[in-house]
TrEMBL record:
Protein name per Swiss-Prot or TrEMBL: Forkhead box P2
GO CC terms, sorted: nucleus
Pfam families on file: Forkhead, FOXP-CC
Localization in the cell: Nucleus
SMART domains assigned: FH
Start and end residues of each stretch annotated as Disordered: 1-43, 69-89, 124-145, 164-216, 318-338, 593-619
Length: 619
DNA sequence: CGACCCATAAACATCC
DNA sequence: CGGATGTTTATGGGTC
């Protein structure tokens, strides 16, 4: 689970994603001269265009070679009658050798790049379905088009070879051609930059077909280029050139970062960077798992004594614990594997992972806990393994848990039985005393307005009326205390959080947490804020913070939308899950706001908007 | 101390 | 009839 999430996180993270897609698209372009316009109407047409472009590029490359005065490779057809045949042959040989050599070099580079890509793909970095800007290895997408890898490679070599020649100063007389050729090469190699320049190139004599193809992919290419442009500055590694506008940037990109050895090298470096980050991530993940394993695998303490709990409680939340174990509490380690380890576990895990959590042990949630704890999504995620294996009662109310279960469902709805399953699956604690907690679940479902029962084809499913849920929470949290809570809670784990969050931010790993939530690619870019918080290993701490933030948000949200006395009831029908088979692409975005009742689930844009609002609110 | 929240238990109703 | 599912009421501990 955690690994899954991590992978997804990686692939989802804006950094890796943008980075990779742009990177790979460049490399890709280089490797196959011509990127499929992905989005083009039909695959066939795209393929055709691609093929055509490749041919043209190849031709251009050959022409360039032919026109090279000195060492140009002359085709048999172009015999210079005035020169002795021998001489011509020698020249040809020379040029051919030169070309071969260059091709070999480039081929090596390409292989390296491919390896990188492959590695990353294997690691899930490039798991996205091939699409625009999506890295595709020659053999993968192109082969279907009818081109063998060998052919493609040859094409690539041809093109790059010609390009390399240009770099070698072999472009004089063939200026026109080389320019054209150049543009074609770069345009394909650097999708982002290409569009504009491509136009020039095209106008300079490129075939209409090619022109057309470029037009079609112009949009995506431009879009891709945007990831390299921000705040008026070129974000190409080590560049930072100031560009007044995007157009200028594109020119800059094309001129300064065209496909050449330097750019290629930089790409490789960037790949390495990404790889390093990934490695580091996996290490950190391992560490986290080890920590968690250590904490809950610990040779179970003799017995869950209240003391430890008290200790914990005293440290963190206090009161809760004394009451300690509910009847069914861990006291009786039903599972040998998951010794209740209350003490050590709690004192450590929670303390490490989250303060709010700690208390959980004894009495399940209390207002207090609830107040400080955050949306499960974020909180549980980081400690997923922990709760899954440790027979520890989660510090959340049934309502919270139920909501989380539902939220994690792809379609935001679950049958009672599915909710049960989620409980048992997610928490070791709920693998016992089924009658008790199941009854409680049912009780909560019926009791709380935020849970809406929906008649379905199959039967009945339960959904969450986010409005109601938030309303409830905001009511609890609201008041003067709300404001106070935020800062205090923030300060709570400040030290830990600060560094961590900073690290995360820097690393651009927004979606680090939420295993199940990150499944959908759609979430990747969308739900970062929440996910980010949740993602951090310090989940709970952050969770706390988050919760508060969440509460604040909720507050703001409700108030913001209908400031004076929002009328919770009348507003929007709570999630119409029933009528419409929602296709929420993401179960991710655990964020309550995302699911807010009033909007149809489908829109990622909405999500982004909400996100925006969210962040705004936060600020 | 009272209001409120939450968990738990249980009676009862419905449906399959 | 029995089990699953829902609803409702009661009770008690904890928090504010």
């Amino acid at each position: 689970m955690m690994q899954e999430s991590a992978n997804e996180t990686i692939s989802n993270s804006s950094m890796s994603q943008n980075g990779m897609s742009s990177l790979s698209s460049q490399l890709d372009a280089g490797s196959r001269d011509g990127r499929s316009s992905g989005e083009t109407s039909s695959e066939v047409s795209a393929v055709e265009l691609l093929h055509l472009q490749q041919q043209q590029a190849l031709q251009a490359a050959r022409q360039l070679l032919l026109q090279q005065p000195g060492s140009g490779l002359k085709s048999p057809k172009n015999n210079d009658k005035q020169r002795p045949l021998q001489q011509q042959q020698q020249q040809q040989q020379l040029a051919a050798q030169q070309l071969v050599f260059q091709q070999q070099l480039l081929q090596m580079q390409q292989l390296q790049q491919q390896q990188h890509l492959l590695n990353m793909q294997r690691q899930g970095l490039l798991s996205l379905p091939p699409g625009p800007g999506q890295p595709t290895l020659p053999g993968q997408t192109l082969q279907p088009a009818g081109l063998s890898p060998a052919e493609l490679q040859q094409l690539w070599k041809d093109v790059t070879g010609s390009h390399a020649m240009e770099d070698n100063g072999l472009k004089h007389s063939g200026l026109d051609l080389s320019t054209t050729n150049n543009s074609s090469t770069t345009s394909t190699s650097n999708p982002k930059a290409s569009p504009p320049i491509t136009h020039h190139g095209i106008s300079n004599g490129q075939s209409p077909v090619l022109n057309h193809r470029r037009e079609s992919s112009l949009h995506e290419e431009t879009a891709a280029a945007q990831s390299l442009y921000g705040h008026g500055v070129c974000k190409w590694p080590g560049c930072e050139s100031v560009c007044d506008d995007f157009g200028q940037f594109l020119k800059h990109l094309n001129s300064e970062h065209a496909l050449d050895d330097r750019s290629t090298a930089q790409c490789r470096v960037q790949m390495q960077v990404v790889q390093q980050l990934e490695i580091q991530l996996s290490k950190e993940r391992e560490r986290l798992q080890a920590m968690m394993a250590h904490l809950h695998m610990r040779p179970s303490e003799p017995k869950p004594s209240p003391k430890p709990l008290n200790l914990v409680s005293s440290v963190t939340m206090s009161k809760n614990l004394p009451s300690v174990s509910p009847p069914n509490l861990p006291q009786t380690p039903t599972t040998p594997t998951a010794p209740v380890t209350p003490l050590s576990q709690m004192s450590q895990v929670p303390s490490v992972l989250s303060p709010a959590n700690v208390p959980s042990m004894g009495a399940m949630r209390r207002r207090h806990t609830d107040k400080y704890s955050m949306p499960l999504s974020s909180e549980i995620a980081p400690n997923y393994e922990f709760y899954k294996n440790a027979d520890v009662r989660p510090p959340f109310t049934y309502a919270t848990l139920i909501r989380q279960a539902i939220m994690e469902a792809g379609d935001m709805q679950l049958t009672l039985n599915e909710i049960y399953s989620w409980f048992t699956r997610t928490f070791a604690y709920f693998r016992r005393n089924a009658a008790t907690w199941k009854n409680a679940v049912r009780h909560n479902l019926s009791l709380h307005k935020c849970f809406v029962r929906v008649e379905n084809v199959k039967g009945a499913v339960w959904t969450v009326d986010e409005m109601e849920y938030q309303k409830r929470r905001s009511q609890k949290i609201t008041g003067p205390t709300l404001v106070k809570n935020l800062p205090s809670s923030l300060g709570y784990g400040a030290a830990l959080n600060a560094s961590l969050q900073a690290a995360l931010a820097e690393t651009s790993l927004p979606l680090l947490g939420n295993p199940g939530l990150m499944n959908s690619a759609s979430c990747m870019m969308g739900a970062s804020p929440p996910c980010l918080m949740s993602g951090s290993p310090t989940g709970l701490l952050q969770g706390t913070t988050h919760e508060d933030l969440n509460g604040t948000l909720d507050h703001l949200d409700t108030n913001g939308h209908s400031s004076p006395g929002y009328s919770p009831h009348t507003q929007l029908p709570p999630i119409h899950v029933k009528e419409e088979p929602l296709n929420m692409d993401d179960e991710d975005c655990p964020m309550s706001l995302v699911t807010t009742a009033n909007h149809s689930p489908e829109l990622d844009e909405d999500r982004e908007l909400e996100e925006g609002n969210l962040s705004e609110d936060l600020e």
